[in-house]
Amino acid sequence: MTKPLADKAEVALEFPDKLYIGTFGRSDRFDAHLDETGIWLSLHRTGSDDLRKTVRMHFRYGLFADILSDLAKTVNSMPASDRDHRTALRDATQALYTALQAADQNNPDETSAATANEEVRLLHIME
């Protein structure tokens, strides 16, 4: 199910001989969900044939975890005055953490406790 975008997105796809750039705004929609192997993200612009476009990306879990870790390392590059975006990111990562923890508790036979290193890594992501 798609939802409206809360902010803007820009996608650039660069090939040796071509560059495709697409922008998505608040009137566009997105879908993000997990599957057996990773994270799906889709951006959709609806409308007439000349305006309509869709971008779909799939990141395997290991890559997505690396992306989150790298984002955690660069949090200080956000302007200190940008509290609204910091709060939104913190709330979203907390919601993901809580959902993952609940899933672990619902399936105790399929999961093991997080290692100390994993907990520290996640705390850095959520800061």
Can you describe what's shown?
- This protein has two domains: 3-60, no CATH class; 74-126.
- It is 38% helix and 28% strand.
- The protein has helices at 61-73, 83-106, 116-126; strands at 3-4, 9-14, 19-24, 29-34, 38-45, 53-60.
- A four-stranded antiparallel β-sheet has the order 1-4-5-6.
- Strand 4 (29-34) and strand 5 form a beta hairpin.
- The longest helix has 24 residues, at 83-106.
- The chain starts with a strand and ends with a helix.
Attribute tags:
127 residues; alpha+beta; 2 domains; four-stranded antiparallel β-sheet; two-stranded antiparallel ribbon; 38% helix
Structural class: alpha+beta
Query: Which word captures the global form?
Result: globular
Lateral strand order in the biggest sheet: 1-4-5-6
The major sheet is characterized as:
4 strands, antiparallel
| Total domain modules | 2
Which band does the percent of strand residues land in? 25-35%
Q: Name the helix and strand elements from N-terminus to C-terminus, one letter apiece.
A: EEEEEEHHH
- What's the N-to-C terminus distance? 29 Å
Strand segment tally: 6
The gyration radius over C-alpha positions equals 17 Å
Low-confidence stretches: none
Count of helical stretches: 3
Mean pLDDT: 89
SSE blueprint and pairings:
Layout: E1 3-4, E2 9-14, E3 19-24, E4 29-34, E5 38-45, E6 53-60, H1 61-73, H2 83-106, H3 116-126
Antiparallel strand pairs: 1-4, 2-3, 4-5, 5-6
Helix pairs in contact: 1-3
